[in-house]
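Tutorial, part two.
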Amino acid sequence: MRPGPRDRITDVAGLRVGNAHDERLRSGTTVLTGDAPFTAAVHVMGGAPGTRETDLLAPDTLVQEVDALVLSGGSAFGLAACDGVMAGLRDAGRGFAVGDVRVPIVPGAILFDLLNGGDKDWDANPYPDLGRAAFEVAGSDFDLGSAGAGFGAGVMDLRGGLGSASLVLECGVTVGALVAVNALGRVCDGAGRFFADPDVPGRMPPGWEPYGDAARGENTTIAIVATDAVLSQAQATRLAVAAHDGLARSILPSHTPLDGDLVFAAATGAVALPDPVWDGLRLGHAAAQCLARAVATGVRAAGPGGHLPSHRERFG
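Running the prediction step on this input gives:
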């Protein structure tokens, strides 16, 4: 396996990512969309998720493809970012056809960033506009770190961020990850070395335990893993399940009762897996590797000036 040319989720051909954030609000939204609808699935392992339209991603439901996926700050208010994305897709003539009507299918997930010092005293919910803005600028290249859904994020003692990574398997299939890191846990050791780095000698000092200074419900890491492989919705669900290993490798602890850790999976269906069983296994392994690396990338790329020190500010 090798990284793709951009080392981003948009190495999966046909997929685009857009970010929008508001510095005064200290929050933002990230949108993944495609040139055409794509198969999608979801798996939730955190105890405090916030989601929209995820029930229709079950393998036994009528709708098998979606038009976009949304990651957003704003807690439950941020779910309205999907409204803005739906408006943009509708104007583009996209959506699930029901008679003469087209209904864009836009599942979303949110993280909690309401206590990060930003101005949250709005008269009208700002997230529909952020969702529309992110959709309008979606492309192959996009910012990491303090951008989009990662703008107001934080981990236990550092500023969080938006991360991405990709890998190309020997069979020619590409897989990529996109993540907004806002975890209760830590992502690096006391010397600033990321747990996702295989050269880190020890993952945690003996006896280390999470402390209780963070208020309950202020967390959640939300992610998307995507591939150009042909996958059914059931196979995409399995891909999302496997990708959660990447969170467990890169965030300690992860999947806690206070996090809403969630992974969407997306498959464009451009490349058939030569061996659906073994290449499917390899695909899940690669997705977990991508997601672990994307977590480190997002925190490493975060800029200064947040409610928590950035990795660069603390460790150089």
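The chain has a mean pLDDT of 91. In part three we will examine how such features are distributed along the chain.
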